[in-house]
Amino acid sequence: MNLLLLEPAESDAATAVISGRRANHMRTVQRAVPGTTLRAGVIGRGFGEVTVLADDGAGYTVTYTAIAERPPAPMPLQLVIALPRPKMVNRLLQAVTAMGIKQITFINSWRVEKSYWQSPQLSADNIRLQLLLGLEQGVDTQLPTVTFEPLFKPFVEDRLAAQSGDGLRLLAHPGGGEPCPVAAAKPATLVVGPEGGFIDYEVALLTAQGFSAVTMGPRILRVETAVVALASRLYPAG
């Protein structure tokens, strides 16, 4: 946790009590005691500092002071990705949130198992927790938007083009296409398929919406590895 995130109500109050997961990290990793000052941020707002006033063993009483520092600019990349295996969802959400991706759309695909859509990993509470963990890692305060599109064809034909706007439209597809652009000069929408890739019918529908197949080379990567590699290639840090 590189940033202690507060809810707006916690920052607005004269004092706030930090308990649970955040307090455990403050105690075991940051070794916070009364008088300690820690870097903090407010969800949906900016950065500041918290000062520890008291520790009752169950939680910390803190006070928050805002500073004139804004969150980092978001990565100009929308991610549209076939719903991965449930155990991969948490890692993926944390990774792309830490990188600054602010729009994530999970879609269906022929190779996505129906059971994935009933996974508890997709609960609103779990999704929000993973996004917060990603913000803490990436030192950011602006939550991404996560949406779900369980019907592939209606989404691709009726909504994807409008969602993509005038930016680059890229389809990550193993074994075909041009090399992925480096240091893109405009925003992009990146569509990533399931393990094994999209079937030909799905590729054809995406191509009809103006998406061009791109590749990272002959090696076949796991989905979460491919997403991070592609995003880093499109928008290198710094």
**Global mean pLDDT:** 96
Main sheet properties: 7 strands, parallel
Helix content: 25-40%
Distance between the termini: 22 Å
Global morphology:
elongated
Number of domains: 2
- Strand tally is 12
The CATH topology annotation of the largest domain reads as: Alpha/beta knot
Main location: cytoplasm
Domain Ribosomal RNA small subunit methyltransferase E methyltransferase: 72-234
Organism: Gammaproteobacteria bacterium LSUCC0057
EC number: 2.1.1.193
What does this structure look like?
The protein is of the alpha/beta class and 238 residues long. It is elongated, with a radius of gyration of 20 Å. Strand 6 (75-82), helix 3 (86-99) and strand 7 form a beta-alpha-beta unit. 32% of the residues lie in helices and 28% in strands. The protein has helices at 8-12, 20-28, 86-99, 124-138, 152-158, 160-164, 200-208, 223-234; strands at residues 4-6, 16-19, 37-42, 47-55, 59-66, 75-82, 101-107, 145-149, 168-172, 178-179, 188-192, 212-215. It contains eight helices and twelve strands. Helix 3 (86-99) runs parallel beside helix 4 (124-138) and helix 3 runs parallel beside helix 8. A seven-stranded parallel β-sheet has the order 8-7-6-11-9-12-10, with helices on both faces. Strands 1-3-4-5-2 form a five-stranded mixed β-sheet. It folds into two domains: 4-66, Hypothetical PUA domain-like, domain 1 (Ribosomal Protein L25, Chain P), CATH 2.40.240.20; 75-234, SPOUT methyltransferase, trefoil knot domain (Alpha/beta knot).
